[in-house]
């Protein structure tokens, strides 16, 4: 592959900056804990044994490599580029989130921390955290906005079954951003014995870097599998962007390779003209939240705005700092898919390929189909299918006007 | 010499400790803040910390989270808080005022604009909870040029090496966070505070204020015995919340508490 020498591929710098983005904007009490994490991780990052252990868990526990699948009927339907799906939905627990929680649980183990905490929106990261906590014998507490606890009851129960305690967060907008605030507050108070497993490639340094590193397994496999299946690298990559972990995991190994275009798909909600969306890269501006400088949805006074998306996993007013940097240097493009487009893509993929995507991933499918139509049939696109749709069936049913009886059977 | 340094100097000469109350600007109403500021001074406050409400107060416990929500419910902005300081200064040109809050409202206003407006309003210092000295390197100059004190936090977890760099970057005073936790936590350990202050003073010549967990005369006196100043937030904000519908009553209750602390500190 041709490499682009103009882009600095070594970022972040030692203080966690990607250009003007990233960094570590936290209250003083957390600095020592972040320093400890950074020191541990920079040592382990050079340690082949650590990565061997990580790879072993990914192979035998998560079930990697995840397949790269040629969606032939979907491609034919679009009548343009060939669409390939990176099947993160087939991972244990049903999404890419587990790649990261395995990595961070290993860090917790090396640091001798017996308790882990996590924030969650849709509950996928909470489930992935509770899962590795069970697997590694760690005590787990998950912070979840009270609104999300209500709309994702099944995942709350899954976490409970796995032995995790779920704390409903009643402050602010009672969604993901507030769950993250509360997790930070808990961490400040229990910083000596607790490891905070952040669920996306955001937060204070070194989180955006280490979450990215763990998720790059997606992009590295894609590079290898593309050569085998397509005979070359794809012309474009497409991934949904909530906090940005599945997208950066797929994009990062490709950053230096200009012949592959990259598209991050944000939650367009009810449309980008109003305020009911979760698209900070498309419509926001740089600011500081949750420990890093990045694009945010905020009002003129710097207050963080409430967001809207049909998918709880994209319902976040910020985004990982590396995406902000990729946007500003023009290496990646950021677009949006609306609730309706995502829902339609959910049905199309389900009917045409027999694959039910998570509503988050359906945003990527929606844009991938649009993009394919503008390309030639000898070109190819890889869409990251970040998760499976089982968790969203109730949401889809109610949006489609299908009613459930008390046993959960739809009619 | 800055207004903060002057007050700290005078207190030191008198062998007294600074009493530094915190309230959130615009809580529970925009027009409640300035009268409360005057009441605090009358009851014996030496320096005032005024919180700039933020939607995501990550380092605060429930008391100040709710104060932010009350203030934001009627749209209190950084501009509004600056206007409150301007109004306060019409009657009080002596008492230092520190703005305390999170970085994003300042970032949204722009550093140059903020510093100029704060200076013009009569603000003496700023404490941005989520702005550690490393991230302030680029903007520190703007504050220094305007002679606005930048107050940094030191925590029980802060290493000696970092204490040195905080000492070099800060001015006015440093704010020692007495415990691992958020604002409003109760578990104050005075012996532990004393030990840490000894460690901090080996490198910091600025006055050291201590906050988190000070709620009455007794805790104020205990901490005052080892610190240069005591910072009281949640105990006051709780009283404001309890009397949100009756501003006169709130001022009266808060004054009583602040007076009790003043006497305990001076006693
Ligand atoms: C299946 C799935 N995809 C995507 C996301 C969005 O997160 P990120 O942008 O970090 O990949 C989530 C978050 O819950 C998710 O569950």
Tell me what the structure shows.
The complex is a heterodimer of chains A (411) and B (267). Chain A is of the alpha/beta class and 411 residues long. Chain A has helices spanning 28-45, 48-62, 72-78, 97-110, 124-136, 146-151, 153-161, 176-189, 207-215, 217-229, 245-251, 280-283, 321-328, 339-353, 359-373, 393-399; strands spanning 17-18, 21-22, 68-70, 82-87, 115-120, 139-145, 165-169, 194-197, 236-240, 261-269, 285-289, 292-296, 333-338, 380-385. In chain A, the strands form four sheets. Chain A has a six-stranded mixed beta sheet with strand order 3-4-14-9-10-13, with helices on both faces. In chain A, strands 7-6-5-8 form a four-stranded parallel beta sheet, with helices on both faces. In chain A, strands 1-2 form a two-stranded antiparallel sheet. The longest helix of chain A is centred in the N-terminal third of the chain and has 18 residues, at 28-45. Chain B has a single domain, classed as TIM Barrel, CATH 3.20.20.70. Chain B is built from twelve helices and nine strands. In chain B, strands 5-4-3-2-1-9-8-7-6 form a nine-stranded parallel beta sheet. In chain B, strand 8, helix 10 and strand 9 form a beta-alpha-beta unit. In chain B, helix 2 (33-42) crosses helix 4 (78-89) and helix 11 (234-242) runs antiparallel to helix 12 (247-266). Chain B is globular and about 45 Å long. The A-B interface holds A 15, 23-33, 35, 171-172, 177-178, 181, 184-185, 188-192, 286-291, 293, 296, 298, 300-304 and B 54-62, 65, 69, 72, 77-79, 102-109, 129-132, 134-135, 152-159, 162, 177, 180-182, 185. The complex binds pyridoxal-5'-phosphate (PLP).
């Amino acid at each position: 592959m041709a490499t682009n020498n103009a882009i600095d591929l070594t970022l972040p710098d030692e203080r966690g900056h990607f250009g003007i983005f990233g960094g570590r904007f936290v209250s003083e009490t957390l600095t020592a804990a972040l320093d400890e994490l950074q020191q541990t991780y920079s040592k382990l990052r050079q340690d082949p044994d650590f990565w061997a252990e990580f790879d072993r868990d990914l192979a035998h526990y998560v079930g990697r490599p995840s397949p790269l699948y040629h969606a032939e009927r979907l491609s034919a339907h679009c009548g343009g580029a060939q669409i390939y799906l990176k099947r993160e939905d087939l991972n244990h627990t049903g999404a890419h989130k587990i790649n990261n929680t395995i990595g961070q649980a290993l860090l917790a183990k090396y640091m001798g921390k017996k308790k882990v905490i996590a924030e969650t929106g849709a509950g996928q990261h909470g489930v992935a955290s509770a899962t590795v906590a069970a697997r590694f014998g760690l005590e787990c507490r998950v912070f979840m906005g009270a609104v999300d606890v209500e709309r994702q009851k099944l995942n709350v129960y899954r976490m409970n079954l796995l032995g995790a305690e779920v704390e409903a967060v009643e402050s602010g907008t009672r969604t993901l951003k507030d769950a993250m605030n509360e997790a930070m507050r808990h961490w400040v108070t229990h910083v000596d014995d607790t490891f905070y497993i952040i669920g996306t490639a955001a937060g204070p340094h070194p989180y955006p870097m280490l979450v990215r590193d763990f998720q790059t397994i997606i992009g590295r496999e894609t590079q290898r599998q593309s050569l085998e299946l397509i005979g070359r690298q794809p012309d474009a990559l497409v991934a949904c962007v909530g906090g940005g972990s599945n997208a950066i995991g797929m994009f990062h190994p490709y950053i230096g390779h200009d012949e592959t275009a990259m598209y991050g798909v944000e939650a367009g909600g009810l449309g980008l003209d109003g305020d009911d969306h979760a698209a900070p890269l498309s419509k926001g501006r740089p600011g500081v939240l949750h420990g890093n400088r990045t694009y945010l949805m905020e009002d003129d006074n710097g207050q963080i705005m409430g967001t809207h998306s049909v998918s709880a996993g994209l319902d976040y007013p910020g985004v990982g700092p590396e995406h902000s940097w990729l946007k500003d240097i023009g290496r990646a493009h950021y677009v949006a898919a609306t609730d309706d487009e995502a829902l339609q893509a959910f049905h199309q993929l389900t009917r045409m390929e027999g694959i039910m995507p998570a509503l988050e991933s359906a945003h990527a499918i929606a844009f991938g189909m649009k993009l394919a139509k503008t390309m030639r049939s000898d070109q190819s696109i890889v869409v990251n299918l970040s998760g499976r749709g089982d968790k969203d069936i109730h949401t889809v049913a109610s949006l489609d006007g299908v009613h459930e009886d008390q046993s959960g059977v739809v009619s | 010499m800055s207004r903060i340094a002057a007050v700290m100097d005078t207190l030191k000469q008198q062998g007294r400790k600074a009493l530094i109350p915190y309230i959130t600007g615009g809580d529970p109403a925009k027009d409640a803040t300035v009268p409360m500021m005057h009441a605090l001074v009358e009851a014996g406050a030496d320096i005032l910390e005024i919180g700039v409400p933020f939607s995501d107060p990550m380092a605060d416990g429930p008391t100040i989270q709710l104060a932010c929500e009350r203030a934001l419910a009627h749209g209190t902005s950084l501009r509004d808080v600056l206007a409150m300081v301007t109004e306060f200064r019409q009657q009080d040109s002596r008492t230092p005022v520190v703005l305390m809050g999170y970085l994003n409202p300042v970032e949204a206003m722009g550093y140059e604009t903020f510093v100029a407006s704060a200076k013009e309003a009569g603000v003496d210092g700023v404490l941005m909870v989520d702005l550690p000295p490393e991230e302030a390197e680029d903007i520190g100059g703007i504050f220094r040029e305007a002679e606005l004190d930048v107050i940094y936090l030191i925590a029980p977890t802060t290493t000696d090496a970092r204490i040195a760099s905080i000492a070099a970057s800060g001015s006015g005073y440093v704010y020692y966070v007495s415990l691992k936790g958020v604002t409003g936590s109760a578990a104050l350990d005075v012996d532990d505070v004393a030990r840490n202050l000894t460690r901090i003073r080996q490198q910091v010549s600025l006055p050291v204020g201590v906050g988190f967990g000070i709620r009455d005369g007794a805790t104020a006196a205990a901490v005052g015995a080892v610190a240069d100043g005591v910072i009281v937030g949640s105990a006051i904000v709780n009283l404001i919340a309890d009397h949100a519908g009756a501003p006169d009553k709130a001022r009266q209750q808060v004054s009583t508490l602040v007076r009790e602390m003043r006497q305990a500190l001076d006693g």
